[in-house]
Amino acid sequence: MPRISTAFFATAVLYALAGMVLGMVMGASGDHTMRPLHAHINLLGWATLGLMGAFYGVAGERAPRRLAWTVFAVANLGNILLLAMLSQILQGKPPVLPLLIGGEVLVVLGMALFGVSVLLGGRRPPVELATGETQPLRQAA
Fold first, then answer.
1. How far apart are CA 98 and CA 19, in angstroms?
2. Is the pTM of this model over 0.90?
3. pLDDT digits 0-9 by tens, 100-111
């Protein structure tokens, strides 16, 4: 399932770049008010989505395809809402509570759905290839 894996990795890279730029801005300005946002961007965006992408890359066709794309959409929507509202809070502005709570719930739901994906992917038998052989579970290099 290389497409979903690539989508997770590409998005993770975007979050990593955003986190790095934010870190550079904080360092240059000496204002570290956004430190929690920086940490959340890197953890929820770069690390979490990168690990999810690695799983889908290794699991291949064993992972449920539709569920994988659902995880991708839910996790990213949750991240965007949560990170935007965290930014508001750190700037001393009131968050839009429905967006903050919605983002938090979606982030947790995305991880729960990923857990289901891991369990289902681990239970599926290897995919049979046209040659009659089975596709081995790919190992990370």
1. 25
2. no
3. 999 999 999 999
